[in-house]
Amino acid sequence: MKVSLHWLRRFVDFDLTATELAEKLTMRGFESEVVSDFDSLENLVVGDVLTAKKHPDADKLKLCSVSDGSETFSVVCGAPNVDAGQKIVFAKVGAVLPGNFKIGKAKIRGVESFGMICSERELGISEEHDGIMVLDESFNAGTPIKEVLGPLYNAIDIEVTPDKAFALSHRGIAREVATIVGSKLKTPINNVKLNPKTKDVISVELDKKGGCTRYIAGTMKGLKVGPSPKWLAEYLKSVGQKSINNLVDISNFMLLEIGHPTHVFDLKKLAKPAIKVSWAKKGEKFDALDEETYELSTDHMVITDTKNTVALAGIIGGMDSSVTDSTTEVLIESAYFDPVVIRKGSKKLNLLSEASRRFERGTDSNAALEAFNMIVQLMQEVAGGTLESMITDECSMSLDNTSVDLSSEKLLKYAGQEIASKDIDSILKGLHIDAKKTKTGWNCSIPTFRTDLKVETDLIEEVFRLYGYDNIKSSFNYSSIMQYANDEESTISSLKHHLSSLGFHQSYNNSLEDIEEVKLFGKDAVSVMNPSSERMNTLRTNLHSGLLKNLDFNYRNGSANTLIYEYGTIFEGKTDKLDDITQKSSLSCLVHGDLFSKNVHFDSIPASFSFLKGVASNIFEDKRLGIKVKFSEQKHHYCDPYFSIIDGKKQVIGGLGIIKDSLLKQLDIAHKHEVVIFDIDPEIFTNYGSYSTKVEDIVTFPIVQRDLNFKMDSSIQVGDVVKTMKSINQSILQNVIPVDIYQSKDTSSKDILFSLNFQSAKKTLEDNDVNSIITEIINIVSKKFNAKLRDN
Predict the structure, then answer these.
(1) Are 175 and 184 in contact (CB under 8 A)?
(2) Pairing status of strand 538-539 against strand 526-527
């Protein structure tokens, strides 16, 4: 949301520049960036166009002489409206415009140009770029632009999170600024009592099913539509909006001023001066102000004149009842609509408006009457009309403040440090919260414009936000607002640390994906009813799709070596019924490329299938877990080969496989090497995680190492040979590691070198102790695998 500093000063006095204000608001949780800060721009002055002649070598360019009050510069300009005698914004050589656009000396079609005559877009004021910005003739050439445009057009852009609906207006942001600088909030338009000309009453009927719980209406006559006064047009221009006419501009002004949407109907275009709020009929057609025709459903709430639909409630007005240049009588609407109803209706039509943006987040129920009164006052001032009817205020909701208790004990518990009571009192006062001290803390009366403050933790968060997170000291003793009821998070957290130590990076991907992509993974997908976009319409059935997209992004941006993992929720549903939809946690790893790139010291080490299998074995067979697993080859929809990882209870605890090239091509995933994935079932893994740590004595006796080199058939699995060796005299045979493989030229046989480690916890082993076991191993391996021992 673009916020004008000039507009903010209607509500609060402050001396901060745009850059300083953006920094302070960002620290308060409102991420802000500077749109235009003329105070920081150098070499921008008021210029006087002395001459504007046709360029000798270009029909659409002009060669201008521009004076800065002391020197004259030759400037080539392509704007069609530049002319001699104008006062303009002149950027000298060396100036830096918004967007870090540097002005230098240039040669354009053979003529040197020393600077630039600027448009509004180049200055960050608006998107207008069809011509240059022409200033008032009263300005003197050479005057710094920061003195001319800064007071009006310094602006910042603020990212308002969905829960902070109160901040979607200049008054809302001004409340934050007031707490920052310690000033009082001003009231630029006083809420005076209105005196209608007649006692006519506008009939308003609300639907009993809800959706609209407050609707205020009244009529005005004797209006004259025309251009807005300069002050009104300038306020709108300061936030990038064009002035349309006085009636439309007033409605837009109030939206940006206090954040409550209103709507103005042409009274003469209504069937009668009456309003009925109801639900649309299925398939009903509606011609909107954006000149589009929408097909409505029974989920849409509409405003009717008891006969025709004149507006889509809280979203957009109708073309047939719109204000035009000939309008003289209007019906003014100011209402409160259910946020869920507006959000649902807006999403179904993929139609987002400034009004729906505010209603769907929750507006202030008390601001409805305030906005109505202000609109009437401004119309009387700007358009010369009078209030004809009594004000109808049909309301079925409570307009009272809510009450929330704030415990000083919980504040201390969550902050980990004492926050002085006077600081908390000051913070609550700055939030416009009427707080009374109690034995345990404060009883807080929450104003209706703070729809985000519902429970105690919301208040605690606000206290921290205004106190300053940087003022809260780091501590190892604190209490989190989120408390987990099971051990899954702590167990998985240890696993994440382990993966990170191996060089993996954690990914976070959206759980919503494109249904066409989800289908490629071969599982029953769950579609959402109101997708946020056309390509985010289905819940993911695995984590592989997101990880593959991460790989694709990394590869195309020069990072082919990828080791990533994600821990998240996956979904599957055989039907659309809720009972048939399952969701569970999952953890997946993906590797591609090399673990280490080649350098002068080491060769590259590939992040291969073998590497990820080793990672899996290391995780499961860790002594603390002691999970004995085996890898069983299975058929898989999009992996080849693929191995299920099975524990001693014959549970599938995970999986390991190489993604097929066919799937990678269908998804257009950029890659060079094999793409390997590894899955873990967090639920089963967590069950193994509830172990008691066992401490083993350090064995002080030496290890005896022996090597055995066997020649065997190529089809024999090395893992089977290792398993057989380990089964012999497990008391002193500690480990068997295959260290080298030599494949014969005819590929029918292979030589494998095994390293065997022997160690006793009771004594130093002698040759006789080891030789007897070696002999047994040679005999069993020779018979079982038809292997031959080779001389080392």
Answers:
(1) no
(2) antiparallel
- Phi/psi region, residue 747 (left: phi>0; alpha: psi -120 to 50; beta: rest), is left
∠563-564-567 over CA atoms, to 5°?
155
366 CB neighbour count, 10 Å cutoff: 17
With 0-12 CB in 10 A as exposed, 13-18 as middle and 19+ as buried, what is 371?
A: buried
From start to end of 447-561, where are the E strands?
A: 505-506, 512-513, 526-527, 538-539
* Residues in a beta bridge with 645: 631, 654
Is pLDDT of 478 > 60? no
Query: Residue 241 pLDDT > 80, yes or no?
Result: yes
Q: Which two tokens stand for residue 4?
A: 């004008």
What value does the mean pLDDT take over residues 425-434? 93
d(CA 647, CA 657): 17
**Helix locations, 194-240, DSSP H:** 230-237
CA gap 545, 543 in Å, rounded: 6
Measured between alpha carbons, how far is 719 from 716 in angstroms, rounded to an integer? Answer: 9
187 burial type by CB count under 10 A (0-12 exposed, 13-18 middle, 19+ buried)? exposed
Give the list of residues 6+ apart from residue 575 with CB closer than 8 angstroms, or none.
none
What single string gives the DSSP state of each residue in 126-148? -S--SSPPEEPTTSPTT-BHHHH
Residue 186 has pLDDT above 80, yes or no: yes
DSSP state of 604: -
Q: Which of 703, 705, 708 is nearest to 777 (CA)?
A: 708
Let me know if 217 is exposed, middle or buried by CB neighbors in 10 A (0-12, 13-18, 19+).
buried
291 pLDDT higher than 50 = yes
Q: Name every residue whose Cβ is closer than 8 Å to that of residue 206 and which is 6 or more positions away in sequence.
A: 212, 213, 215, 277, 394, 396
- Looking at per-residue pLDDT, the higher value among 145 and 578 belongs to 145
Tokens standing for residue 18: 């745009």
Q: With the C-alpha atoms ordered 50, 51, 55, 60, is the resulting torsion angle positive or negative? A: positive
185, 174 contact by CB (below 8 A) = yes
**Residue among 753, 752, 755, 751 nearest 736 (CA):** 755
Contacts of 161 (CB under 8 A, 6+ apart): 29
Among the listed residues 359, 362, 338, the one whose alpha carbon sits nearest the alpha carbon of residue 452: 362
Please list the residues that pair with 255 across neighbouring strands: none
User: What does the CA dihedral 194, 196, 197, 200 come to, rounded to 10 degrees?
Assistant: 180
Give SS3 for 343. Answer: helix
DSSP H/E element including 174: helix 170-181
Residue 306 neighbours by CB under 8 Å, 6+ apart: 203, 205, 271, 272, 274, 275, 276
| pLDDT given for residue 481 in this prediction | 46
- Measured CA to CA, the distance from residue 198 to residue 172 in angstroms comes to 35
Beta strand residue intervals within 649-781, DSSP E: 652-659, 676-680, 704-713, 733-743, 749-758
Beta strands 562-573 and 581-592: pairing type? Answer: antiparallel
Query: Quick check: 176 and 25 in contact, CB under 8 A?
Result: yes
Taking the C-alpha atoms of residue 338 and residue 608, their distance in angstroms, rounded to an integer, is 54
How many whole angstroms separate alpha carbon 657 and alpha carbon 611? 12
Assign 631 to helix, strand or coil. strand
Closest by CA position to 64, among listed 35, 95, 86: 86
Mean per-residue pLDDT, 223-234: 93
Q: Return the sign of the alpha-carbon dihedral for residues 276, 279, 285, 286.
A: positive
CA–CA gap between residue 504 and residue 498 (Å, rounded): 9
- Classify residue 254 by its DSSP letter: H
Closest CA to 456 of 471, 441, 437, 477: 441
